[in-house]
Design goal:
heterodimer, A: alpha+beta, six-stranded mixed β-barrel, four-stranded antiparallel beta sheet, 13 helices, elongated, B: alpha/beta, Rossmann fold, six-stranded mixed beta sheet, 29% strand
């Protein structure tokens, strides 16, 4: 029998026992829906975590230090690349070279210094860091009061919430409710703060040469305007060295604040241009981190990244998705028993019909194909309906979650995502399970003895 | 596939030949000998009636000739092919191409219209969709059911259902028409109508007809030869005077 005849007869037969076949198809669609809903939530959560990590800037960043530096992020001795004595200096030339590497978005020096800030005639000592303009998308600035820097060189600063409390002289007692960022930002935004810092200037002898080993340190002041107060800590990765005040990177660079590496330059017998303590390298995606790290190591620098954490995270979500998929599939497994039951019942009901078909020339293959097609058709209908149902369930869960998040004063999140491969996969899986369930009834129908079947009333 | 065993010599005009054909069933400890060593020969184009009492083996013999059942032993040769050596697939092909069957209880599929019922063997024969409907219409027209194409079997009388069954049996142009008590569920007038159709097909198309019946009068009126069975054995054979 031709395929379209098999399909046509299968659909006709399904229509004959509409209620029973519809209920079986609903069973399949519930199974598929549960699979789709579970996996779409797993994928959505994975993507949410991925977006958060991407925005945090932790997983797409490689921190580069010089091998000449005594500090080394790696506890084990890294044998790749040149030895510390032969390694190049981490200076502007090296930074530019790193920035030109494939998959590197930007490489910027880590400008970080301790300085005194004067606000309302009171001195406050804290660590200040330069922030590249690309940090604007960092999730630490989500919900920030005020705005990000207006330009890369603007005399503006963003303060972290805890330092804002310090500036305002607010001390939160243990157990008491912390003041909100909006409350702290109100008196601070637009206020001017004076930073007093040590500037490194070229010594008279150095001015005519490229020798960085001699310089002068002069106390300078820079007045900046508070433009933002942020809740989260954009520098949390730094631990004890984290800054609580942030300036635009170009402004911070232009201030020529004396850096820890400058002191080392005085003992540098070779001399040369000023060097950076650390260069932060931002890559296109966490997947690029290992290759970029390797290349930079071969250039003779030490590197550090927390890309291993992303592997663990991926592994966690792979296991989570697997379990969600298994739980989702359980409903489909139950539905497959429904298919077997429906088809076996159909064989009993249509025993005489099978006998007639065989008597007028249907082969075993024709009869088997017919029952197989009926199982497949239920799988197709159930698959499509299930995907639609699963999509709806996921959407409802997402809407419900966002209502809850809104009540808790959190921004809305997309915790549910149905990729096209899941749609196709779920429909394919549904058809596959249905065909598998149809195997036994189909071969049982094909094996029916036509003489016995024709005697059946 | 082709096998001509010993015994009666077969000729080119032989449509059906059975040789020491047996079909035994086991029912618990007992062995039922439904067909027990029957040897017959039916030439092409002959109209043969199988007669006997209930349980004499008429329908069992017909099922063996139709390829619906397999012999326990012996040979059933149809147009030179021994069905005993056929695979299940080959037997299905035999039922599709060589044989047309008519039953006492009509055996139309109730969920299908007459047109769909008559089209069904053509679906199994993989006849193009575009050709099927005109051929089925033509066949139903021939048995006087042109106005009933879209009716379901339950909406028709017994005679009309049997006429539709005849149209279905002939749709793939078989060489044999096997009829198992075709008038058993019909009144005498309708029965005569059906038998006239069968005789017409036998005479105009040259089809070999084997009809099972227990009505001797009917057999004498329409068949050319009567074969009597008793307890699964060949009891008697007699030609009917023209």
């Amino acid at each position: 029998m031709k395929t379209y005849d098999v399909a046509e007869l299968a659909v006709r037969n399904l229509r004959e026992s509409l209620l029973r076949n519809s209920l079986t198809t609903v069973g399949i669609s519930v199974g598929v829906a549960s699979l789709v809903a579970m996996l779409s939530l797993g994928i959505g959560l994975q993507q949410l975590a991925g977006r958060r990590l991407q925005k945090s800037g932790l997983f797409d960043t490689v921190v580069v230090t010089s091998r000449r530096d005594l500090r080394n992020f790696s506890r084990e001795q890294d044998d790749s690349g040149p030895s510390p004595a032969e390694s190049p200096a981490l200076d502007e030339t090296a930074r530019q070279k790193i920035e030109r590497l494939p998959s590197v978005l930007e490489a910027y020096p880590d400008i970080r210094f301790v300085a005194e800030l004067r606000f309302a005639d009171k001195p406050h000592l804290t660590t200040i860091a330069g922030l590249p303009f690309s940090s604007k998308n960092n999730d630490a600035f989500d919900g920030m009061q005020g705005s990000f820097f207006s330009s890369e060189t603007a005399a503006e600063m963003i303060v972290q919430k805890s330092f804002a409390e310090q500036l305002l002289g607010r001390i939160t007692k243990p157990g008491a409710d912390e003041p909100g960022v909006a409350e702290l930002a109100k008196p601070l935004l637009g206020q001017m703060v004076t930073i007093r810092y040590p500037e490194r200037t070229a010594s008279p002898a150095q001015k005519d040469s490229n020798d960085a080993s001699g310089y002068s340190v002069v106390s300078r002041e820079q007045t900046v305007k508070i433009v933002g107060v942020c809740d989260l800590d954009p520098d949390s990765m730094r631990g004890a060295a984290r800054a609580r005040v942030f300036l635009p990177l170009k402004l911070a660079e232009g201030m020529h604040v004396m850096q820890p590496s400058d002191l080392r330059d005085t003992s540098n017998i070779i001399g040369g241009a000023p060097t950076y303590t650390t260069v932060q390298v931002r890559v296109k995606s966490p997947a690029n981190v290992p290759s970029v790290e390797d290349t930079i190591k071969k250039m003779g620098f030490n590197t550090f990244s927390i890309v291993d954490a992303t592997h663990s995270l991926r592994q966690f979500f792979a296991v989570l998705d697997l379990f969600l998929g298994i739980f989702g599939s359980l409903a489909l497994a139950v539905a497959s028993i429904g298919i077997i039951n429906t088809l076996v019942m159909a064989i009993l009901e249509r025993r005489r019909e099978i006998g007639i078909m065989k008597a007028i020339g249907a082969s075993d293959v024709d009869v088997k194909g017919l029952f197989f097609a009926e199982a497949g058709a239920m799988g197709i209908f159930g698959g499509f309906a299930g995907v639609a149902l699963g999509w709806t369930i996921g959407r409802i869960i997402n809407i419900g979650t966002n209502i809850y998040l809104k009540r808790q004063h959190f921004p809305p999140e997309q915790i549910w995502f149905v990729p096209w491969w899941l749609v196709l996969g779920a429909i394919g899986f549904s058809i596959g399970v249905s065909l598998l369930s149809g195997l036994y009834p189909a071969s049982r129908a094909a094996r029916l003895d036509p003489v016995q079947a024709l005697r059946y009333e | 596939m082709s096998l001509a065993t010993g015994g009666h010599p077969s000729t080119d005009r032989t449509a059906i030949r059975t040789e020491n054909l047996c079909r035994h069933y086991r029912m618990g400890e007992a062995v039922i000998r439904a067909v027990d060593g029957i040897s017959i020969q039916i030439p092409s184009g002959e109209f043969v009636a199988l007669l006997g009492t209930s349980g004499s083996g008429k329908s069992s013999l017909l099922n063996l000739i139709a390829g619906l059942d397999r012999p326990t032993s012996g040979a059933v040769v149809v147009h030179g092919n021994n069905l005993a050596s056929f695979s299940r697939q080959e037997l299905a092909k035999h039922r599709l191409r060589t044989v047309g069957m008519v039953f006492q209880s009509f055996n139309l599929i109730p969920s299908m219209t007459l047109l769909e019922n008559v089209e069904l063997p053509m679906r199994f024969a993989e006849v193009e969709r575009s050709q099927r409907e005109p051929l089925a219409q033509q066949a139903l027209d021939r048995v006087g059911l042109a106005a009933r194409l879209r009716h379901r079997p339950t909406e028709l009388s017994g005679g009309e259902q049997q006429r539709a069954a005849l149209a279905r049996a002939l749709i793939n142009q078989p060489q044999l028409l096997l009829a198992d008590e075709p008038t058993g569920n019909l009144d005498s007038h309708t029965g005569t109508e059906i038998m006239n159709f069968i005789r017409e097909f036998n005479q105009s198309l040259g089809m070999t007809v084997v009809m099972v019946t227990h009505e001797r009068a009917l057999a004498e009126r329409y068949a050319q030869r009567m074969i009597f069975l008793a307890d699964g054995k060949l009891a008697n054979e007699s030609a009917v005077a023209p």
